[in-house]
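[READ THE FOLD]
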Amino acid sequence: MNWLNSEAFTLFGQHIIWSDMIGNILGLITLALGWRRSLWTWPVQFLSGLVLFAAFYGHLTGSAGKQVVVMAVALYGWWQWQRTKDRSDDGHIAPRFATWQERAGMLAAAAAGTVAVALLFTAYPKLSWDPWPDAYIFVGTVVAMYAQAKSMVEFWIAWLLVDLVGVPLNFANGYAFSGFVYVIYGALVLWGMRDWWLRSRRGPRPALEGAPA
């Protein structure tokens, strides 16, 4: 898998490697499929994690380990969406707003998780290039994926909060390609959040027995 870490092209003076390009493209597809509430969002998310795991394995163990967590959450999301009984009239999952208890739980988990992961990264510098923002982005991504698996509209807000750190951080560290991709992420997040928000107001409508999905 050494080719994943080789240069694909140069953009704005930045050397873009294959793993970065493929991972970001798959990430955009994942977000677009999530907007459409398609079950395929989870296999694509898993594939994105697998590509990045293959690229990082052997020399960036911390980054590779993070992708294992992402792939595990993607499998959970696939299982959760398949088993959910609340569906819209188009056959896809029905978005909903989280309860106040769920929101408090996710905020507490995000805060505690960020501190714990950042301390771990600080204790073992080889696991991360910048412990605190890296921990924030990683934990925020996991929380967003969990909320998405539960069909919560708030998952878009979690992604937006991740983007607010990810965009300037990538540009500041010279990752122009990733930075521009995060800008596109932000646009997709706003459109997707609006769509899920409106759909959550309609509520699920039970399908008639024997009617096509």
User: Anything to note?
Assistant: The CA atoms of residues 59 and 84 lie 39 Å apart.
